[in-house]
Amino acid sequence: MKLKTAGIHHITAFVYDAQRNVNFYVGVLGLRLIKKTVNFDAPEVYHLYFGDQIGTPGSVITFFPFNQGKRGRIGGGQVGSVTFAIPIGAISFWEDRLKNYDVTYQVIERFDEMYLCFQDPDGVQLELVERADGENSEWSVEGISTIHAIKGLGGAKLYSLSPNKTLGLLQEGLGLERIAEDSNWIRLSSYGALGNIIDLNRNSIERGMGGLGTVHHIAWRTQDQEEHLRWREKILSLGLQPTDQVDRQYFLALYFREPGGILFEISTDSPGFTVDEPIDQLGRNLKLPLWLEPHRNELEQLLPPINVRALEGDQT
């Protein structure tokens, strides 16, 4: 059976300040902080996960807040922007909400869809678009009901240093279907309901520079450990160099650089974010893998405190 990804599992970016990151993605955009952990490769840095009520694959965006980092530059070899899907009829609500929080946005059209395009406080490029696909999120916060709430990821825009090679990998490697194109973009789709639409810029773009305000990697979904191993063999057969399987506590991961320079990850849907805390407690406490537990006191001294709270505009 031919391997195909259902779409995006998660997207991870670099930002500056942890509390400001939480204020924006929870307080303004209404996502749930589903996991407060650390970068396993640099545990003095948080790894914050946001998504729907349980962190469904395809709903998740994650961040490394690093206040010692340098500003990046978005360009070739990167995810250019992250798209969030909202329910049909919700776009006017979001225009009002962004205005209420003084978030500057533009309205653009791409493939007969209207997008609200804006940046988070660190310069990560974001979009909101109405989509019928995917169930409404069950998570709501003060000021945002479930009929307006972000469903999850709608997809992403990719900027490649070699668009034709990236296109080939997306189609032949990951199994995405080419469904539309114009002079600037090629649109591809996976079979999933969320994180399923990829717009690849067909023009070669000047190389970007990783750092604050840029996406570090985009992760693609696979079902389980067995299928994950098959993906590794497939990537090797394409002449690319994947890492070994890495246990990220909530999923297994492997990483590779695709021919256009973008860092790709393959992540398993299981075991998910309730493996170490119940649904009603998600994101409340610092969670560490077992091998970091002996260093908890030290890490808690290094990491700044985070509070999840309603912002002033939503307080009643």
UniProtKB/TrEMBL annotation:
Ranges of residues in domain VOC: 7-131, 152-269
PROSITE patterns noted in UniProt: VOC
A family per Pfam: Glyoxalase
Protein origin, superkingdom: Bacteria
Spans traversing the lipid bilayer: none
Protein name: Glyoxalase family protein
Species per Swiss-Prot/TrEMBL record: Seinonella peptonophila
